[in-house]
Design brief:
The protein has 329 residues and is of the alpha/beta class. The chain has a single domain, classed as TIM Barrel (Alpha-Beta Barrel), CATH 3.20.20.190. The chain is built from twelve helices and twelve strands. The strands form three sheets. Strands 1, 2, 3, 4, 5 and 12 form a six-stranded mixed sheet that branches. α2 links the parallel β1 and β2. The longest helix is centred in the middle third of the chain and has 15 residues. It is globular and about 60 Å long.
Length: 329
């Protein structure tokens, strides 16, 4: 297994797909935009994240009935829009409202709200943007890319995108190849090679391998992970991994000290970057401060980037970190 890992690392380096040393600094990735401050995956939330000096801005992608790549975290519409009151007759047998059952034009009529718990009707994060205030809409992948690329042009900056293909197997059950449609859209906007300012992520292991090996995609691929997996196998097709922070800081010992796994070290040995999710300053583990979590992740285990609901806080930490000078021997 060690020999395989070294071989994979050598191939990655030869192919220019980077070892961690190729990164100039850790990445500040805006999770669903600046979603701690404005409703997630709305264009205002993305513009705010841009202004907060995010290096990359995330886009979760599902499909509409007319095959428009839609930016929304779930295949359902009901936790973040008023679809239930606007189209009560359009729910499925399970009581949920699915984006794939609506045209993009219909979805554009929906108002977006802060994420709610469907059982209680209350905001999941009560301290964030108030419910039923102001007016927000969902956007297509193309609309969001045009916003980010437009801001890049007008500001002279070069902020990247970080799309996630959501539930490709489920979309196939609906008769749709979401991956092919997303890759086509990305290519239309100039995202086709490993040199382009984009990471493409997915939780589906088989689909990410299909993207690499069958669809011959040259983009930097990130394998999202939730449970145990074979690091060496992922390193054969992916640029990096996206684990939960809980897979890195797994808990606390009897003295209240954090327990750190070896996941980042194992990934780095195989040439994989590590971009964990999700930093939330308003939802911290007991006994942990925001600075402590960031210190463990960036300074102790040395992750390569982080998904953050608070790109201002994570970004400021990274700025301070960059000013620290290495100790002299």
């Amino acid at each position: 297994m060690k020999k395989l890992c070294l071989t994979v690392l050598a191939i990655s380096l030869i192919g220019g797909l980077s070892s961690i040393s190729a990164m100039e600094k850790p990445l500040n990735i805006a999770h669903r935009g600046a979603c701690a401050y404005l409703p997630e995956h709305t264009l205002p939330a993305k513009a705010l994240a841009y202004n907060m000096d995010a290096d990359y801005i995330e886009q979760d992608v599902v499909l509409t009935a007319d095959d428009v790549p839609l930016i929304i975290h779930d295949i359902h519409l009901d936790t973040v829009t008023d679809v239930a009151s606007r189209f009560p007759e359009r729910k499925r047998a399970d009581g949920r409202y699915y984006a794939v059952d609506f045209t993009f034009a219909e979805i554009k009529t929906l108002k977006v709200n802060e994420r709610i718990d469907l059982e209680t009707g209350k905001a999941v994060f009560p301290g964030r943007f108030p419910l039923a205030k102001s007016e927000f809409r969902l956007a297509s992948l193309g609309e969001e890319i045009e916003l980010i690329q437009g801001l890049n042009k007008s500001t002279g900056r070069d902020i990247g995108i970080y799309p996630e293909i959501k539930e490709p197997a489920w979309h196939r059950e609906q008769g749709k190849d979401i991956t092919a449609i997303v890759l086509k859209t990305l290519a239309e906007y100039g995202y086709q090679t490993a040199a382009d300012k984009i990471f493409l992520q997915c939780f589906d292991f088989a689909e990410l391998q299909r993207i690499k090996n069958e669809l011959h995609c040259e983009l930097k691929l990130i394998q999202l992970v939730e449970e145990d997996f074979v690091v060496e196998k992922v390193a054969s097709y992916a640029f990096g991994i996206g684990p939960s922070i809980r897979q890195i800081i797994t808990g606390t010992d009897p003295e209240g000290q954090p327990i750190i796994s070896d996941l980042v070290a194992r990934a780095h040995k195989c040439g994989l970057q590590v971009h964990p999710y999700t930093f939330r300053a308003d939802s911290l583990p007991p006994g942990m401060s925001a600075d402590k979590i960031l210190q463990i992740l960036f300074e102790e285990v040395q992750i390569d980037g982080i998904f953050s609901d608070f790109p201002d806080i994570s970004g400021q930490y990274l700025k301070i970190l960059s000013l620290k000078k290495p100790e002299k021997n």
